[in-house]
Write a structure and sequence with these properties.
One of its GO terms (biological process) is intracellular protein localization. It holds the Pfam family RGS. With about 350 residues, the chain is mainly α. It folds into 2 domains: about 190 residues, Regulator of G-protein Signalling 4, domain 2; about 120 residues, Regulator of G-protein Signalling 4, domain 2 (Orthogonal Bundle). Helix content is about 65%, strand content about 5%. Strands 3-4-5 form a 3-stranded mixed β-sheet. A two-stranded antiparallel ribbon has the order 1-2. It starts with a helix and ends with a helix.
């Protein structure tokens, strides 16, 4: 991100004048949430070197930039499954999916269900245990002993088994697997050719500004494409800083989170801001109260409205032109070529 911020700063320094006149505070424009029409159904025809593509302009993100989005997106999940299979860890996601299916079936069983229905669910739970939790199983996910013992006691030793206990018996094991996904496999997936395939599948259909913000290489191209003035440059820098703040706030102590929020506020929204984004007095007061709360911890969504203003502004001003540009199509074609080359290299290695 440092290279991107430096590029933005260089652009900003060349845009401090317009038509030979310096830009003063009085020249700032108040940007409020856009009420422009939704362009999600609009598309652009693009042609480079004989290639014709059609890209949608989207309002919502489609890239799986977080684990939660990935696990809820069947298309993205298919690529994650391929990645885990390449790591010989297919059992992890198979366990996750089997438990999700088990929980869904449990939700269809009434609280006062008859013994036969509950016994059938118990059989399913024990099958999951034998396949994934049992230490000697070939598909074992290797959960800690305390988790394995707790599950065993709940679905094997306890009789009769209550529906509420059965429904949650695999929660600790799922939490354990989720931590593995979060702290290791998801980040490795994002750096793999499988994520590039997901990215290509999504961006070949179209993109939103949210998607651009998730892909640094694409964001650099977007920065070059923008006819950047000072306000737009400030907005893009703020969106990057805001994304970092929202991703990290849960790991920060109250005073550290407050310092981070105040740093963003002071730089972009205060009356003495060094990279000003004018939002108007009422919203500034609301923002200050969301940052300086009674409990001393800023709200996680303190910058939500400001973020929406900036995204609407940049999206409405640039995105339709960007997805119709040669720059965007060349990015897609280069991404496709990169994937093909990577696959070819791995194929050659397997043959040799």
């Amino acid at each position: 991100m440092n290279s991107l911020l430096n590029k933005l700063k260089k652009k900003q320094s060349t845009d401090t004048t317009e038509n030979g006149h310096s830009i003063s505070d009085s020249d700032k424009i108040v940007f409020m949430p856009s009420a422009s029409k939704d362009y999600s159904r609009q598309s652009q025809n693009n042609q480079v070197n004989g290639h014709i593509e059609r890209f949608e302009v989207r309002k919502q993100p489609h890239l799986a930039h977080s684990l939660d989005i990935l696990l809820a997106d069947a298309s993205a999940l298919a690529f994650f499954i391929q990645f885990l299979e390449s790591q010989d860890k297919l059992n992890l996601i198979k366990f996750w999916m089997h438990v999700e299916g088990f929980k869904a079936s449990m939700n269809t069983i009434a609280d006062d269900a008859n013994v036969a229905a509950l016994n059938s669910a118990i059989v399913d739970a024990r099958n999951i245990y034998n396949k994934y939790i049992e230490e000697e199983s070939t598909g074992s996910i290797s959960v800690p002993k305390r988790i394995r013992q707790k599950i065993f006691e709940e679905i094997v030793e306890v009789n009769p088994i209550e529906k509420s206990v059965l429904s949650s018996c695999f929660d600790d094991a799922q939490d354990f697997i989720r931590q593995m996904f979060e702290h290791r496999y998801f980040s490795e997936f994002q750096n793999s050719v499988y994520y590039k395939k997901h990215e290509l599948e999504v961006l070949s259909q179209g993109c939103s500004l949210y998607d651009i913000l998730c892909v640094q290489s694409l964001m650099l191209i977007f920065v070059e494409f923008m006819e950047t003035n000072r306000e737009d440059s400030n907005m893009l820098q703020f969106l990057i800083a805001c994304d970092s703040f929202e991703n990290d706030i849960q790991t920060k102590e109250d005073n550290e989170a407050l310092e981070d929020a105040m740093a963003i506020y002071d730089k972009y929204f205060s009356m003495q801001a060094t990279s000003p984004i004018e939002i108007g007095a009422p919203l500034r007061v609301e923002l200050e109260s969301d940052i300086c709360t009674e409990d001393g911890r800023p709200k996680e969504n303190a910058f939500h409205t400001c973020k929406r203003i900036c995204i609407n502004r940049l999206q409405d001003k640039y995105l339709r032109k960007f997805v119709a540009s040669e720059s965007y199509l060349r990015y897609i074609l280069d991404l496709r070529t990169s994937i093909e080359n990577t696959v070819r290299i791995f194929s050659n290695l397997e043959i040799s």
